Amino acid sequence: MASHMRPMSPSDTTVKPKAAEKSPEQELGGTAQSSPVGDAPQPKRHRHLLWIIPAALVVLLGGAYVGGALYFESTFMPGTILDGEDVSMRPVSEVADEKASSLDGYSIHVIGKGLDLTIGAEQAGLTCDGQSYASEALAQVNPWAWPLEIAGTRQISATATVTIDRQKVADVVTPAVEALASDAAVGGHGITYDAEAAAYVIDEQLLASSLDAELVTDAVVAAIQAGEAEVEIGDECAETKTELQTAVDAANKLVSSTVSLTLGGTHVADVTSEMIAGWTTIGDGLSVSLNADAVTEWTRGALSDQLDTIGTDRTYTRPDGQTFTVTGSTSGYGASTYGWSIDGAALAEQIVANVQAGQPSTIDIPCVQTAAQVNPGGQDWGNRYIDVDLTAQHAVFYDNGTVIWEADITTGQPNLGQETPTGVWTVTNRKSRATDGDINLKGPIDPATGEPEWDSHVDFWLGFVGNLVGFHNAPWQSVFGGDIYTYYGSHGCIRMSYADGQALYNVGRVGDVVVVHK
Asked: Of 369, 401, 430, which residue constitutes the final position of a domain?
């Protein structure tokens, strides 16, 4: 078949290049060696492999963190000290159970006002909320911070809530209080003096019989809540009768009014609370009074025996260093007259008035007679006195340690029962012939003759045992001292020469102390 197509000339024909053929590497997704590296795009499958590994690690770590946090939400971390106890790695439930049972052996001792009983934990219905305690402790540590906290240590504390069944406590306390009330058998008014407290108190049994069971229960519950092992029941749990308390207050006002006693300004005795209690009377009608007669009995008895020195033996040391004991009385003359003599009756009145006034006080003891100083059993006269030594037959007048007169003497003749009386005396009268006229010494009347047993005239006289015995000169005697008194002694007086008698008269005064001793 003839063709109608015109043969194409080279100029009419457009030659199209052939498509490049793919290399085996390009077919397989590789890169031709002749192509630049950056020119080839990354396959998607290779990119997926790069993030799978980190993601897996994150999942694993996150799981471990969460698991640790969940674990430490119920378990204490290592290094945890709870109220002084190591609870490291211990479950909360275990710590809670232990705390809940911590009161199992608890008991409280109740004493005072006659009560003496012990109440155990079970009797008191005592329970401890261990779960709250352990949970409170655990809440103080953040479990989600365990990676940071696990290597450290921590001191924590929590409050254990203790529950007490008040009714159960009352069930124990009430019968005990009622038993005391029924058993109380207090005699009289039930008020006694407590020497140790130096005060009057209401008898314990009487107070126990007045205990309020409700108040006692409250006190016990409060003590249990405070964790105490013992509680002492006091007046706050007793309903004291008003009239009893009034009597106690009145009596205590008396015994608190102690008195300090001085003699010549020197403290010598105390009227103590115990002494006042001995003089206090509480009547059946609860009247309180002070026994004035008992006070007088003491002031005129025991106190006078302690302080009065008239007629007592006294030991003293003379200025020359010699020590003597002067006896206080002599047969025929009685007690010597110098020394203290308190006025017990007047003192008792003052003590009663001061004690009833209700305040401590001081009283300077009133006296019938005073001395120079307070020194029971010793020298209570001053430093001016005439010392008569019957053994030495010598007399010395001391004035503040200085000898102002001395002389040999002749005293009473012992074998005739006319010995000069010993003791501490004072010069009662002083005479001289020159100023007072004739001084006539007369003895007792002789029944046979009706005349004085002796009748002597002297120039000087210083009497010291009333007007019976004294110092005087003796014109009929020329020698004095030695043992003359044993065979030619006086009737009791102290004889001396004219010159010595005159010298003594000149320095002596009425009131001067005369100490006569052996």
From this structure: 369
